[in-house]
Design goal:
about 80 residues, single chain, mainly beta, 4 strands
Length: about 80
């Protein structure tokens, strides 16, 4: 098995949106954490598993969220 990991910090600026009753611009701050594991089988196949958590902090409730994501795949080549 081999393990991977990573973190990303991001920031997005949004302009005011009068049509949505948001009169001032604002910034969202996003944090993403990733963990992965790879298991090699034989010489031509591997199993890949990844978990990701993302948190978006925003002063606008509609844009604030937590997201969890899991993926698994079997990769083979010849």
């Amino acid at each position: 098995w081999s393990l991977t990991g990573g973190a990303t910090l991001g920031q997005t600026r949004h302009p005011a949106q009068p049509e949505a009753d948001i009169e001032e611009s604002w910034k969202d701050k996003r944090l993403t954490l990733r963990l992965g594991a790879i298991a090699k089988y034989w010489k031509q196949a591997q199993l890949f598993i990844r978990y990701e958590h993302e948190r978006n902090d925003s002063p606008i409730d509609f844009y604030e969220y937590d997201r969890n994501w899991i993926a698994a795949s079997i990769e083979a080549w010849y």
